[in-house]
Design a protein that fits this description.
The chain is an all-alpha fold. The chain has helices at 9-34, 45-99, 106-128, 191-244, 248-281, and strands at residues 144-147, 155-158. The protein is built from five helices and two strands.
Length: 284
């Protein structure tokens, strides 16, 4: 096309190039401002879809971790209380063994019995206070079930223990149906009572320690799975970053390049706009 004052092709071409540079510059600036190369669906629909799904999984795993943290708290409180009960039973056994001696005086037996009864009654108080977020797993009842994954297809069980004393007189250590064999009315008022209490406390102590071992194993599993979920969250977060995070060093260099390109484009447009002026010189 020849020279024309009506249509300036050079200026239009320069303007299109300048506009394209401006759009590229805006894109780079958005990446630098947000730190993301894919911030919205229009940046890259497929990658945005994948990233959003992974963000959803990440949030779901956070809910799983919250449940596992609660489970760990319940287990830790129960273990601390159970260990206290075990210590109480050890002291009660000592008093019962001493009181089973037929040669001790009445005043000594009364002193042993007073200490024994105080320790016996302390068990119920320990169990009543072994709560975390309203949950108490030392008084019997159904086991607690916690989610282990986001779909609910896997769970972790926290066993409920029954460390309460037998109501009334204690059960025989030979009874297979008994849990804690010591009763709420057992005492050391006589040598015969002391012998019975001694055997029941010893059996109860064995039972409590075995139950604590079972609870400890469950607590360890919960803690290990919680660590795994945490590592899984870190891996998902890293994967999302690989998909959508912008390389700021690269974008910074690109920004400077586009700024120079924009300046050159502005100059090119200015030159193109001056081209019709050369036509006027032909008519002088």
């Amino acid at each position: 096309m020849g020279s024309s004052v009506t249509t300036n092709v050079g200026a239009m071409t320069a303007l299109q190039a300048l506009n394209m540079t401006g759009r590229d510059l805006q894109t780079v600036q958005n990446r630098i401002n947000t730190g993301l190369k894919v911030a919205t669906a229009k940046d890259n629909g497929a990658v945005y879809n994948i990233a959003q799904q992974q963000r959803s999984d990440l949030a779901a795993y956070e809910a799983v971790r919250s449940g596992l943290d609660r489970a760990k708290g319940i287990a830790d409180v129960a273990l601390a209380a159970g260990e206290s009960i075990s210590d109480v039973f050890k002291q009660m056994r000592e008093k019962a063994v001493a009181a089973s001696d037929t040669s001790i005086s009445a005043s000594s037996r009364a002193a042993y019995n007073a200490e024994f009864v105080a320790l016996r009654d302390q068990v119920a108080s320990i169990i009543a206070n072994a709560q975390f977020d309203g949950a108490n797993i030392l008084g019997g009842g159904a086991n607690l079930i916690f989610l282990a994954n986001t779909s609910g297809s896997q769970t972790i069980t926290l066993p409920t223990l029954d460390l309460s004393l037998t109501t009334g007189a204690g059960a025989s250590p030979l009874s297979p149906a008994a849990d804690v064999y010591l009763g709420t009315t057992d005492d050391l008022t006589s040598a015969a009572n002391a012998v019975s209490a001694r055997d029941r406390v010893a059996a109860s102590l064995d039972f409590v320690n075995s139950e604590l071992a079972r609870l400890g194993a469950a607590s360890k599993r919960i803690e290990s799975h919680n660590v795994f979920v945490s590592k899984l969250q870190d891996a998902i977060t890293s994967g999302i970053g690989n998909l959508v995070d912008a390389d700021l060093a690269k974008e910074s260099a690109h920004l400077q390049s586009l700024q120079v390109k924009q300046q050159l484009g502005t100059q090119a447009l200015s030159i193109a706009n001056q081209a019709p002026q050369t036509i006027l010189s032909l008519f002088k």
